[in-house]
Every structure is written in C-alpha cells, then in structure tokens.
Amino acid sequence: MLAAPATILSAAVTILTAIVLYYTMVVVGRTRKTHNIWPPAMSGHADVDRALRVQGNTVEQVVIFLPLLWVATLYFHGWIPAALGLVWCIGRVLYAIGYMKEASKRGPGFAIASIATMALLVLSIWGVAVSWMAANAS
Fold it and tell me: pTM of whole model > 0.85?
C-alpha cells in the first residue's frame, strides 16, 4: 500500500508542501532583514506585514489541505488526489507572489488552492463513503 504509485505521488506532494512552507518562512526572514524589522516585532513595514500574512495564511490552509490529501489518497485511490495537491501547491505559490506584489493580487492563487482543497474534500467524502458501504455490505 505504501509503495503504491498514488501514495508515492501524494508523498512527493507532501514534500513539495513542506518546501512551499519553508519558502514562506524564508521570505519572512529576508523581508524582515531588508527592512530591519526583528522579532518579536510583527509589523513596521507593509512588505513585512504581507510576508507574515502569506506565511500565516499558508499555515492555516495546510492544516486543512494535508489531512484531506491523505484521506483522499487512501480512500479514493488513483492519481487525482496527488494532482490536486500539486494544483494546491501551485495556487499557494501564486498566492504568495501576488500578495507580495500587492494584497489585492492574491485572489487568483487563493482561488486555485481553495478549489483544489474543496475537490479533495469531495474525493475524501466520496472515498470514505464508498469504503464504508463496501465494508458494511452484507
């Protein structure tokens, strides 16, 4: 089961997700350094505020995304959950790039990631429901 192609693909997406999270952390650090805003300060320049919001929102979203990715991977099967995970990662990077340019430009990336999350929710519910019915069929 752990060596199944779909599971390996979702594992790769999970690693990519960690890289996206790490990227947001690096952006915060670089932006703080550029503007001489050191912890514990959480504001002082709009660039720092935007970087912190990108990081915070990405962490908020990953808490929803990762469980759905793995439930969909385990119960829906196939490559679709991993593909949606890749779309989520792309959406989060676009969100970060847009938000860092100007807060009003974060929408497309947010929408892409949100649609991927909602699709994973649907696949998760579907997969668990089908598995439950199969396990309880008499």
Answer: yes
